[in-house]
Design goal:
This protein is mostly helical and 146 residues long. Bound molecules: fe (ii) ion (FE2) (2 copies).
Length: 146
């Protein structure tokens, strides 16, 4: 019998990495411009890759059995990603203007809420509903990017 493949552990690991980079940026935001700038770029690069992987490699493969519930979940994720990317762009504008980001706290709070939603509601469902073959294909795509 083959072991069940899971997507969640890999993505949880990436969530942790992203949050660590955000913590680092929080520390560096008050320092000199180059330090703050580099730290922000490192964080935003990882976050944007993560969102790309989720939207292009993972959620596109999801064809839920429970159509109503499943298809309500996907637009909610996209909506939250768009909020995150918007907030990220506002922060980028602040950093590039050499001013302290105005909504770092709000951003962090939203990110943690989003991550909790995915880890509690989205990935468990995905791992349960997708077959090993599809998950293998998804994992290959994830590993190409993150
Ligand atoms: Fe996400
Ligand atoms: Fe995520």
């Amino acid at each position: 019998m083959s072991k069940d493949i899971e997507i969640m552990p890999l993505m949880v690991k990436d969530h942790c990495k992203i949050e660590k980079l955000l913590d680092e940026f929080e520390e560096n935001a008050d320092k000199d411009h180059t330090t703050a700038f580099n730290s922000f770029n490192k964080f935003s690069w990882e976050l944007e890759k993560h969102i790309f992987v989720e939207e292009k490699a993972i959620f596109t493969a999801y064809s839920p059995k429970d159509v109503v519930e499943g298809y309500a979940m996907l637009p909610e994720i996209t909506k939250q990603h768009n909020v995150l990317l918007n907030k990220l762009n506002n922060m980028r504008r602040d950093v590039y203007r050499r001013t302290k980001p105005t909504d770092l706290y709000g951003f962090k709070e939203f990110l943690i809420g989003h991550r909790t939603f995915e880890e509690k509601d989205v990935y468990p469902k995905l791992d349960k509903n997708l077959d090993n073959g599809s998950k293998k294909i998804i994992l290959t795509k994830i590993n190409e990017i993150i």
